[in-house]
Amino acid sequence: PDYSRYMDLKEGWLDRRIFSDADIYEEELYRIFARSWLFVAHESQIPSSGDFLTTHMGEDAVIVARQPDGSIRVMLNSCPHRGNKVCFADAGNTRRFVCNYHGWAFDTAGDLKGMHEEYCYDAGDIDFKNHGLKNVAKVGNYKGLVFATFNSDAPSLEAWLGDFRWYLDMILDNEEGGTEFIGGCIKSVISANWKFGVENFIGDAYHAGWTHDSGARSMNNGQPFPPIDMQNSYHASMNGHGWEFGTEGVGDLVLLGRPKVMDYYNKIRPKMAERLGEMRSKIFGSVASASIFPNVSFLPGISTFRQWQPKGPMQFELKTWVIVNKAMPDDIKEEVTKGVMQTFGPGGTFEMDDGENWENCTTVNRGVVTRHERLHYRCGIGREIEHDTLPGIVYRGQYNDANQRGFYQRWLDMMTHDEFGKMPARPEPRLGNVAETRDL
Ligand code: FES
Ligand code: FE
What we know:
Blueprint: E1 7-8, E2 13-15, H1 22-33, E3 38-42, E4 51-57, E5 60-66, E6 72-76, E7 91-93, E8 96-98, E9 105-107, E10 112-114, E11 138-142, E12 145-149, H2 157-161, H3 164-172, E13 179-190, H4 194-203, H5 205-211, H6 213-219, E14 233-238, E15 241-246, H7 259-276, H8 278-283, E16 289-292, E17 296-298, E18 304-310, E19 316-325, H9 330-344, H10 349-365, E20 374-376, E21 384-385, E22 393-396, H11 402-416
Helix pairs in contact: 4-11
Residues 79, 81-82, 84, 99, 101-104 line the site of FE2/S2 (inorganic) cluster (FES).
């Protein structure tokens, strides 16, 4: 099918069917989720040999396991005998994954090691070497975030993230020692298309002051969100990843009701400037949000880190973690955790506001007449600029649909290109622009 008929991003519209159509969804699983680099774990979740966790890549169940040599393997959580899950725990430590059905047993690398009543097989019935748990094609680690891909043709993780690393380093590398996830993972199921979560976090500053007005006031002595400084705020996107942010003045409201955390960031800010430069030390802590293509989002500063796991065209499972700097004192980590729970857990004020909107957008867009009407994605379409410090496709003004358009452009690129190597880079690599981290 010609997916380009579902959007015109130069004109700024989308066809509503991409949010509910079952055939499009099935194709997304193949062309996007089975080919992209997908976030699977933070390395701090599985620090020791034998540590594992279970998650999904698209709708495929996988195990992420730390090996005795310290490396990390990612494999299908499905027995090669009849397909049963070999691990039902969310996380733990083990030497073997043993299947419930007939007792086939695998080591943490996925190799088949034995089974119940092994003598039932004659010589030649089973080649132990070829009946392990299928490992993914590639595993990569960027400053603690572990990604995997089923696609052996995928570019390196560094190339996949590209200049987005310049932005990512603001949360992953703003202080000596790096980051960790603390506490567990909170899961909730929302009856909405997965793309609504991603596009909201990639650039929808616009909804915050309206959707979250009462929540913000309740947490901040009746004060609303401050108005956005359209001159000194931006959208930046690259290959479908995006970050929206301000560059002047730190958003004091960003840690709603948690001034202790804001004080901490202000205290380390001079050091942050030494590590990352003046510009990034000012961006960090502004009212900001970001998504990594295809399905990870986070709020820099508020420290919620989340993944929108597709479960059908009109449902996703939202997994949420708290990400903190390892070097933070315990009381600050606790304060950050409280802040995340208050705002963006399933019981958080803002989560409820957003979830309801996305559920309604999804179900209403599916109406047999409604689905043929276009949606408006033109905000700020003429505000692209060249910036000498900020990498990516940069638009001025945080009230903008630019990052959303960048995300759907990448979606379209992946849906329409069979070969990874032929997909256009967005933006085209430019000489003379930015980023100490750029090495492409
Ligand atoms: Fe796993 Fe038979 S399905 S041992
Ligand atoms: Fe929101």
